[in-house]
Amino acid sequence: ARVALDFDRTLATTRAGSEPVYGKHGCDEELLALLWTWRRASLVLTRNRHTRAIREFLERHGAPPGIEVRHVKKGEAKGAALREGLRPGDTALLV
Description:
Layout: E1 2-6, H1 29-37, E2 42-46, H2 51-60, E3 68-71, H3 78-83, E4 92-94
Parallel strand pairs: 1-2, 1-4, 2-3
């Protein structure tokens, strides 16, 4: 199984690919809890290119250390990125 969360306007209050700023932007606490519950199977898929800043921002907000943050280029389907590495019969959820 795999759980993927979108970053901008879903997991965080950032918009339009802006770099997240701790203290200015917030995180959805329930989705952060989901990352902990599924920490071995969760990742963040985003079109936002600031992946290192996103990881640090999420960790400061209490996300599991080392959470995978993957940049998905414009034109590339997030679903395709989510399916990478899945075995036949695996289930995936993109929020």
